[in-house]
Amino acid sequence: MSDHLTVVDHPLVQHKLTLMRDKGTSTAEFRRLLHEITQLLAYEITRELPLTQITIETPMQTMDSPILAGKKLALVSILRAGNGMLDGVLELVPSARVGFVGLYRDEETLQPVQYYFKAPKELKDRMVIAVDPMLATGNSSAAAIDLLKEAGATNIRFLCLLAAPEGVARMKDAHPDVPIVTASLDRALNEKGYIMPGLGDAGDRMFGTK
Ligand code: URA
Q1: Are 179 and 3 in contact (CB under 8 A)?
Q2: CA 201, 131, 48, 65 torsion: positive or negative?
Q3: Ligand 1 atom closest to Cα of 205?
Q4: CA 75/CA 90 separation, integer angstroms
Q5: Region at 110 (left for phi over 0; alpha for psi -120 to 50; beta for the rest)
Q6: In this model, does residue 46 exceed pLDDT 70?
Q7: What is the mean pLDDT of residues 54-71?
Q8: pLDDT at 111 over 60
């Protein structure tokens, strides 16, 4: 645990994560659990949203009371698995603006190549939360954050379900200003780039594509 990495050890998060890791968990159940766990993680990652005071009338009296301030949050899904985390955050922050980043890995250079990018306007004035369940090598995550910074974002956070130490180190190196919130820091990557013990391919498990 550091300022750069927060592992949310809440019992409900850890319980749901165990169910998600279990290979016997169905696609429908996996998707539902990801939705629920994302809401719990979103609670943590939105902790520093700015507040301002407004004056309201309760049935009893007038009071000054806090309300979210500034431009709406921007939520950015790193395709395709990030889409499984969108609705969980949007239920908590329904007015958030939503963007998408699509990257594939060039098989010759092994570098991430952009195939889609659509971000909300005025990124520089918003808290931006990039979501991707698996922070593995960190190459595509770091590239996605590069694109968001090129588009003007200055206040970015990264929300994932599982992180590998290699991915955390890569992100810390490339983007030390981007805090990461996760449900678990797992042991390591295997030789194919999968997180161990992990949960397998998050996209395949949530969309039933394997
Ligand atoms: N992406 C996944 O879906 N799973 C991993 O273990 C690593 C990357």
Answers
A1: yes
A2: negative
A3: 3
A4: 8
A5: left
A6: yes
A7: 97
A8: yes
Residues in the chain: 210
19: Cα within 13 Å, side-chain hemisphere = 16
CA distance 145 to 103: 12
How far apart are the C-alpha atoms of 201 and 198, rounded to whole Å? 9
Alpha helix (H) ranges present in 64-177? 83-92, 139-150, 165-174
Q: What secondary structure letter does DSSP report for 123?
A: G
Give pLDDT, residue 2: 65
Instruction: Check if 204 is active-site.
Output: yes
Q: Which of 27, 105, 125, 146 is catalytic?
A: 105
Residue 114: how many CB atoms within 10 A of its CB?
13
Ligand 1 pocket, residue 136 CB under 6 Å? yes
Q: Is the peptide bond before 120 cis (omega within 30 degrees of 0)?
A: no
The CA 13 to ligand 1 mean position distance, Å, reads 19
